[in-house]
Fold this protein.
Amino acid sequence: MNKHNAFKLSFVLLAVIVLSVIVWRLKEDPRTLQKQSSPAISSVFETVKNKLSGQEKIKQFASYEDLKNFMSANASNSYDGMVGGIVRSGLKTLDAVAPSSAVMEKGTASGSEIAPIANQADSQKTTDYSKTNVQVEGVDEADIIKTDGAYVYAVTQKDLFIIKAFPASQAETVAKIEFKSFPSDIYISGDRLVVFGYDDQILNQPFYRSFIRPNSFAFVKIFDISDKKNPKQVKDLSIEGNYTDSRLINDQLYFITNNYSYGGDPILPRIVDGGEVISSKCSGVEKCVMPPIYYFDIPYSSYSFTNITVLDIKNDQEKPSNYIYLLDGGQNLFVSQSNIYITYTKYLNEYDLEMEVTREVIFPLLNTSDKDKISKIEATDNFILSEAEKRQKVNSIIERFASSLAMEEQNKLQKTIEDKIEQKFKEKEKEMEKTMIYKIAINPKAEEKLVFKATGEVPGSVLNQFSMDENGAYFRIATTQHARWSRFAKEEKKSTNNLYVLDENLKTIGALEDV
């Protein structure tokens, strides 16, 4: 018996069966967590198919306990190192240090500038001025400098300056607002000024010390600037999470933050209003925000709490609306006047191909007794047996099976597996890099200001927000499938570009591929 081959075969079998049992477990209702002794075995790409169908309909957790149970049941999905995980890009975050250099770069990149203003009467405001570059008309994007045609609002270090710019002969600084934390970006709409940035001062608040797991916070401050010389702060919020992006549409601010969960009890993003932590439990509490928490019945590889805070910047009395989406990642954002699109790229490891083929070839060779033993081991709660302990016990069963195989059988199985993997790789090549798309409708006049609409997917990855566009009911997206070398392919795959047109349900209705 060749010990090297036996070890190799036992490792592959171990990974296959662990993955198969995980797939079976994920098909169960995450809140019931019922045990069974004879799991149905599914292939990796059948799991992907089930995952996509699970993403077609969003669900809402009935309670916080529901959320805890779901995350606890799916905690084993990140099978550490043994099976290739999903690679994803990180979200951009606000800098926690002095943003002087970043501010200069961002100002240059955005193309923000003020056109020369003709000399006119003091009381007249010119309409001939350029605004901050935006992708979609009517959907404002934040920047470090804004103008309303008569005044310029500019962020420098920890200060914001209001500068009278028209007429040019009377240009002067009329006000300076000082901040304890570094402002990052601003919005201007009529007599409202919105300023936000990384909140490093919240660390000094007494309530912060009571937080179980302290996280980053972003501040949002709104000022009444009807009197330019005396700006008055009317709203002061701190929102937990790393700032991702924001938009301002018809005085409705959509502010997006992101939190990743790294184990333990999930902590919902907190909101601090005027120095007071807003309770997420509204029973007998005057000031509270109980956000709905949405999720998909899918096998998550990581937990990303994407928090969208909706705020009417003209209504000082209206409390913020929060919507939390438990996603599997996030990286790019496109916003029209009607919808928010959040995308992330998922990658399937080539090892998944080996898992599918090896299962098809080898799993039927295991006897019923061994299958039942493995099923019972994997069905055991994690607090009784850890994932490492389960793998160790399963591996001992696999090793006994591998040691019973003759050399000729091993060689035959390996050749069969290699041939099938090469064939499968050709069939599934486009599955290796895909972009997931989440569509959320904007309803500012309704009680539910955000309504989840659809999920879709297209091959390749998205460069940035300018790779996406909406035209009526259609969504257009450009992606790139990057160059890739594989030991299963006879030649290197070159980088190609794709263009897809999706309908209102995010189903692909047109495509131009491999350009």
Observations:
- The chain is about 25% helix and 30% strand.
- Helices lie at 3-26, 44-54, 64-73, 100-110, 350-362, 368-379, 387-403, 407-427.
- The first strand starts at residue 59 and ends at 60.
- The radius of gyration is 27 Å.
